[in-house]
Amino acid sequence: ASxxxxxxxxxxxxxxxxxxxxxxxxxxxxxxxxIPLKNEDIDVLLQLGAQIGMSxxxxxxxxxxxxxxxxxxxxxxxxxxxxxxxxxxxxCGVLLGIFFxxxxx
Length: 105
What we know:
The protein has 105 residues and is mostly helical. Helix content is 84%, strand content 0%. It contains four helices and no strands.
């Protein structure tokens, strides 16, 4: 099962016990323990949860589009950071390997 499936399953299971907003926030917190979410990601998801069910269908679609736009921007930033740091870590690994090779010889 995917993380998204687990998230919505937790939301559905908790609806019998409390309101959607409480269940949504609790599910985000529980999923945040299993996958690394940045504070910005959590804030966007919490804002989405606060807006879902509070307006008509058009308002909810707008809220979902806004959340997707924000999360896509965060994903782009994460990709850039991964590319930048990936090169740094690879270079450090090569240099460390050469260092150990020199020590062994």
